[in-house]
Amino acid sequence: MASIITATTTSGLTHSADNSGVLQLASGTGNLVTVPSVTGTAMVSGNMPAFRATKSSSQTISNNTLTKVTFDTETFDTANCFASSTFTPNVAGYYQVNYSYSAQSLTTGRNYAMSGYIFKNSNIYTTFEHNITSAADQYGNTYVALVYCNGSTDNIEVYFYQNNSSSGTVLLAGSSSTTQFSAVLVRGA
User: Fold this and answer.
1) Domain tally for the chain?
2) Of the candidates 116, 118, 188, the residue with the CA atom closest to the CA atom of residue 149
3) Residue among 131, 135, 138, 188 nearest 165 (CA)
4) Cα separation, 155 vs 88, whole angstroms
5) Domain span at 59
6) Are residues 15 and 100 in the same domain?
7) Contacts 24+ apart (CB under 8 A), 62-65
8) Most exposed residue of 21, 130, 135, 159, measured as fewest CB within 10 angstroms of its CB?
9) What pTM does this model have?
10) Which residues are registered as beta bridge partners of 94?
């Protein structure tokens, strides 16, 4: 028979299981939750890590240099897993990782190679490169990856690389709507 552990009182909560192993929870009339018989952990919103972090000021990215992107403002961090621009989730599973940037101070007509990197445990997990000839002083992009994390030691960071035909710097914009880093658990291990 399946068992259930609740984080709060079970006063008024009844449960039963039929012969197929389906667990039903009821609280009052018409409030029924059915949990199918499965192995593993049933995830509920209270234990699903998610965070979003942004920059409050611009970050200078030197030419031909891989640079860790720093984030100093948390919009939310549901499980206290984000610190020092690093996400270390405390639940094993598959995470959707999102990384958006806005590169500013581009020179019109200059060729740029820009790459966003998602790192897992200090190693490149995935990278995306864009080669552009700047038609304006700003360019942005968003990267998304599905990453498995073990829930204890795995961590995620994001990096940025730029190289342009005439050496110089670019700025990653610092505002809550441009350069951002987020992740959410989409499925337990």
Assistant:
1) 2
2) 188
3) 131
4) 4
5) 45-188
6) no
7) 62/169, 63/162, 63/163, 63/164, 63/167, 63/168, 63/169, 64/161, 64/162, 64/163, 64/167, 65/161
8) 135
9) 0.78
10) 148, 187
